[in-house]
Amino acid sequence: MLEQESQSFITNDFRRSCEEICQILSDYGHQVRPYQDPNLAIFGRLDCARQNQALSDIRIYLSSIYDTRGLKKNPNLGMQFLWSSLKTYGLKCPHDFFNKISEDCIIELYDLEYKQVWRNFHFFDVCSYTIEQVFCEPWTDRYKRDEKMMQKCIELTKACLEGSFETMTTNLPAHLISERYSEFGYDIMITHSHLAPVRLSKTAKLAGYLVLSSGKVISQQTNKYEPTMTRAETIL
């Protein structure tokens, strides 16, 4: 009985967090759905460890939003949101990365396992996945792109993580990425312009990397793909 109550609490907490993020995004003019099914079928398919991780991930993301507001900063502005969020996550990035940020850019933070752990609000303008999917399904499962471009992205990511603590200009051309099984199946023309390593603030230990991009939805369709949960490729 206690185990069932605990599971119910975790599910309800995750559902409320999805709804809360959607409401905040809506307040700033970004339209996103919290989930496909109020029963959280995607979340429910995860084992206990992955559910706990997803709940932890969504909680700290919410904290980064509220911390930004608490500092009287605007989470809808990429530079302000990133600056505050790095403090929430206990991270630091090269100072020159902030000089590369434009008003409508997409900013993503990945850990050393290539998992997306944070994204700015403009990310959701080129994403038709639900909040539940973003936090429960691997980023590497959700998109497809040209294999040659994939290899270039992998090589650049490794170079960023193995290089000095500075922002890297990628020189990657704009290219197409496609959502595999979202509601609208967005095709997105994306340009990843810069990469930067991030370190733990206290120990300076390498912790992941940032990706700065611009993107535009060029087409959409009703997508009936089902998640495969099998891909293990690195996607920037």
Q: Could you please describe the fold and organization of this structure?
A:
- The protein is of the alpha+beta class and 236 residues long.
- The protein has a single domain (2-219), classed as 2-Layer Sandwich (Beta-Lactamase), CATH 3.30.450.
- Helix content is 39%, strand content 21%.
- The protein has helices at 2-27, 41-45, 48-70, 78-89, 131-136, 139-142, 147-162, and strands at residues 91-92, 106-111, 116-119, 143-145, 168-169, 175-179, 187-200, 206-219.
- The chain starts with a helix and ends in a 17-residue tail after the last strand.
How do the strands and helices of this protein lay out in sequence?
Elements: H1 2-27, H2 41-45, H3 48-70, H4 78-89, E1 91-92, E2 106-111, E3 116-119, H5 131-136, H6 139-142, E4 143-145, H7 147-162, E5 168-169, E6 175-179, E7 187-200, E8 206-219
Antiparallel strand pairs: 1-7, 2-3, 2-8, 4-6, 5-7, 6-7, 7-8
Helix pairs in contact: 1-3, 3-4
